[in-house]
């Protein structure tokens, strides 16, 4: 079996599974074996029921003492049963899984795993997962890979497919010489791929992961070099002139710009007046006020007779920008248009025509649409917001844009300058290093789940005074890992404990786009009080009356991402609160989270994160979405980024082309699916 074969070649994968895997972008054997784990799981030993404590993840064994009961409470169906061993008994509860009442049989022996909670003075295990003896004992004391899934494919079956594919696939020869790997303590590629899925130990998993990260950076930097090789010198353009229109806008804003905003605006203005093409990265912490800079640049570009566009990584953010830009720019006679995935076909056609004939001056949209069939009459400036959420491929395509018009990319990722220079090697960098004055500092706390009741009290109080709340969970639906809260499960639980007057809704990336927009728009209008969400809300959303954000299982996120999340509150002048709730986790992890307590500064946090994490930490921090590398993490894999950069620097453009010819499996566009943005 070869890398390029369709997944159907793998034993056990039929037509039905092939389709399901297709939804995850897995069509070939190569794509299957590079569907790397997002995390690892390991089962703990069995605990006596008499010794279980609230807040922990336990495996218990015993038999069911009486027939399970089933009852309804509001929209909830609750199944209860009691499991008993020789040391005690515990209540089991399943929400909205009525079939459990039939599955569970009185008198039968079970192994169950779940999280212990204390409810009305009684210990319960909520949503326990049932294991067969064999299943459980085979997973004991090993690191089990946890994969990104789609419904219809369980983690267990994914493990099996990958295991079989790894066993039967013939690997391509490693493109890195053995000597180079030895010198730099890198695994060979085949070993890395095998061991990242099925590591012998934690250390083994880390080493395997490092090599995978190396490959991803290496290929990215090669592709970038290829492109840069084509147009190395700065190209000329007409110089823009300043008529003062932007000063008028600045004076009409309800606030005065910070010094940092003014400085960055001047950088951009100078670029556009210079007679050369601008390619500039604008970096600035969440809430530093980057949107208004985009607005100014677009108005300046318009005033010089050009169309402009701004792309956002999510529809939700595109819509928000559209509303803001059109309201502010109306009095300048600027026509703003919106193009996203949920624009109807007929409206799209109309919009294309209006863009082509120049009726529309500024187009706001998601990336894909702006790239596709849109023909501009005279595009002068392209802005990309939240650049770090776009895929690596898109990042590469973007740098090609520079030869047609001015381009600005905006990012809140506080990457250290040395790394930024590698990844954005072809761009000038400006930093908005100041947060607008007058905002009360956020109140942060890092707490265990025993604080949940107090947190709910705070939320109720805030909602009753007209404010709103975000609760973030790491998962969409309840899955194999009982340690992780899911949006769906959590929403159900929350509704059962919150007063009736509090309006609660769920939001996650698997919902249809229209549903997502509807929920966000209800939340923006204040018609939802508590939004339980995955990190889809991480980027850009600006709801000024949101004052509380609580992140469940915060130990599972990178600090930089938590910092982004906390940027959703405290955007206006109300006091805001960030609650980082952690599950059962080690001291080091809690110490890491506490960095968030000490500072509200994104750059400081990223550098502390990097310092504390060191090269050895990988569990749960990868896939934080930064820069959208599929696997690599620019912070914790910074060493690999540097190493790969050294090697790429030493190659000539001809050698790069040669590399892609000899390794067609890595051909550009093949190694990363950039579409997968925003979860
Ligand atoms: P980000 O940099 O995260 O994209 P935004 O541009 O969305 O931040 O700005 C966050 C909030 O701060 C917005 O509500 C915006 O209107 C406001 N804002 C921007 N600049 C200033 C300023 N100089 N003074 C006060 N508020 C500002
Ligand atoms: Mg923004």
Descriptive labels:
six-stranded parallel sheet; 24 helices; DNA polymerase, domain 1; binds adenosine-5'-diphosphate; disordered C terminus; 679 residues; binds magnesium ion
Describe the protein.
- The protein starts with 14 loop residues before the first helix and ends in a 17-residue tail after the last helix.
- Residues 615-626 and 669-679 have low confidence and may be disordered.
- The protein has a 7-stranded parallel beta sheet with strand order 11-12-10-13-14-9-15, with helices on both faces.
- It has 679 residues and is of the alpha/beta class.
- The chain is built from 24 helices and 21 strands.
- The chain has 4 domains: 1-37 and 142-170, Orthogonal Bundle (DNA polymerase, domain 1), CATH 1.10.150; 49-138, OB fold (Dihydrolipoamide Acetyltransferase, E2P) (Beta Barrel); 245-432, Rossmann fold, CATH 3.40.50.300; 443-599, 3-Layer(aba) Sandwich (Rossmann fold), CATH 3.40.50.
- Helices cover 38% and strands 19% of the residues.
- Helix 15 links the parallel strand 13 and strand 14.
- Magnesium ion is lined by residues 290-291, 385, 540.
Short note summarizing the structure:
The protein is an alpha/beta fold and 679 residues long.
Please state the overall shape, judged from the principal axes of the Cα atoms: globular
Whole-number total of structural domains: 4
> How confident is the prediction overall: mean pLDDT?
86
CATH superfamily of the largest domain: P-loop containing nucleotide triphosphate hydrolases
Q: Which class do the helix and strand fractions yield?
A: alpha/beta
- Give the amount of beta strand, in percent: 15-25%
The CATH architecture term of the largest domain is 3-Layer(aba) Sandwich
Low-confidence stretches: 615-626, 669-679
- Report the CATH C-level class of the largest domain: Alpha Beta
**Spatial order of strands in the largest sheet:** 11-12-10-13-14-9-15
Largest sheet: 7 strands, parallel
Proportion in helices: 25-40%
Bound molecules: adenosine-5'-diphosphate, magnesium ion
CATH fold label of the largest domain: Rossmann fold
Total of DSSP H or I helical runs spanning 4+ residues: 24
Radius of gyration: 26 Å
How many strand units? Answer: 21
Distance between the termini: 32 Å
């Amino acid at each position: 079996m070869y890398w390029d074969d369709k997944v159907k070649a793998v034993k056990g994968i039929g037509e039905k599974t092939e389709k399901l895997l297709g939804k995850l972008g897995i069509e070939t054997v190569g794509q299957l074996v590079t569907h790397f784990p997002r995390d690892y799981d390991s089962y703990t030993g069995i605990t006596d029921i008499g010794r279980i404590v609230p807040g922990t993840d336990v495996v218990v064994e015993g038999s069911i003492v009486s027939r399970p009961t089933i009852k309804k409470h509001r929209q909830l169906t609750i199944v209860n049963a009691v499991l008993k061993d020789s040391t005690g008994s515990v209540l089991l509860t399943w929400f909205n899984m009525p079939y459990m009442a039939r599955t569970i049989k009185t008198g039968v022996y079970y192994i169950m795993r779940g999280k212990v909670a204390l409810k009305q003075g009684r210990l319960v295990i909520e949503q326990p997962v049932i294991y067969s003896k064999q299943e459980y004992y085979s997973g004991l004391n090993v690191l089990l890979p946890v994969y990104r899934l789609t419904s219809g494919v369980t983690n267990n079956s994914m493990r099996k497919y990958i295991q079989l594919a790894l066993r039967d696939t013939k690997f391509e020869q490693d493109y890195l010489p053995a000597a180079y790997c030895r010198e730099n303590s890198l695994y060979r590629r085949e070993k890395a791929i095998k061991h990242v899925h099925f590591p012998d130990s934690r250390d083994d998993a880390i080493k395997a992961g490092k090599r995978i990260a190396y490959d991803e950076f290496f290929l990215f930097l090669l592709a970038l070099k290829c492109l840069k090789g084509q147009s190395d010198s700065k190209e000329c353009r007409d110089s823009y002139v300043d008529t003062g229109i932007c000063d008028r806008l600045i004076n009409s804003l309800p606030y005065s710009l910070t010094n940092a905003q003014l400085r960055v605006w001047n950088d951009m203005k100078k670029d556009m007046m210079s007679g050369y093409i601008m390619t500039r990265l604008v970096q600035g912490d969440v809430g530093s006020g980057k949107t208004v800079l985009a607005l100014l640049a677009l108005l300046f570009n318009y005033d010089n007779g050009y169309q402009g566009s701004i792309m956002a990584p999510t529809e939700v953010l595109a819509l928000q920008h559209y509303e803001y830009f059109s309201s502010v720019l109306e009095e300048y006679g600027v026509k703003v248009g919106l193009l996203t995935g949920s624009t109807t076909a007929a409206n799209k056609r109309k919009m294309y025509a209006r863009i082509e004939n120049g009726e529309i001056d500024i187009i706001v949209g998601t990336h894909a649409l702006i790239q596709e069939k849109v023909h501009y009459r005279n595009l002068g400036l392209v802005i990309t917001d939240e650049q770090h959420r776009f895929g690596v491929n898109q990042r590469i395509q973007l740098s090609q844009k520079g030869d047609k018009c001015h381009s600005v990319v905006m990012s809140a990722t506080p990457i250290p300058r040395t790394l930024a220079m590698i990844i954005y090697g072809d761009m000038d960098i400006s930093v908005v290093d100041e947060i607008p004055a007058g905002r009360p500092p956020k109140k942060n706390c890092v707490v265990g789940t025993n604080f949940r009741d107090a947190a709910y009290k705070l939320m109720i109080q805030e909602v009753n005074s007209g404010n709103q709340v975000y609760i973030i969970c790491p998962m969409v639906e309840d899955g194999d890992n009982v340690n992780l809260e899911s949006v769906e499960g959590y929403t159900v639980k929350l509704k059962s404990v919150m007063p009736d007057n509090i309006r609660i809704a769920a939001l996650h990336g698997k919902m249809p786009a229209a549903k997502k927009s509807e929920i966000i728009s209800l939340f923006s209008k204040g018609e939802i009080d508590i939004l339980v969400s995955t990190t889809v809300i991480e980027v850009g959303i600006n709801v000024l009356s949101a004052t509380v954000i609580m992140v469940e299982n915060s130990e599972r996120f990178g600090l930089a991402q938590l910092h982004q999340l906390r940027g959703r509150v405290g955007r206006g002048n109300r006091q805001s609160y960030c609650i980082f709730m952690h599950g059962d986790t080690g001291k080091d992890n809690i110490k890491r989270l506490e960095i968030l307590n000490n500072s509200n500064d994104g750059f400081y946090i990223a550098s502390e994160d990097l310092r504390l994490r060191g090269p050895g930490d990988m569990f749960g921090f990868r896939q934080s979405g930064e820069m959208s590398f599929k696997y690599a993490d620019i912070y914790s894999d910074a060493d690999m980024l540097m190493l790969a950069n050294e090697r790429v620097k030493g190659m000539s453009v001809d050698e790069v082309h040669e590399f892609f010819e000899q390794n067609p499996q890595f051909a550009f566009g093949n190694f990363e699916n950039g579409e997968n943005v925003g979860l």
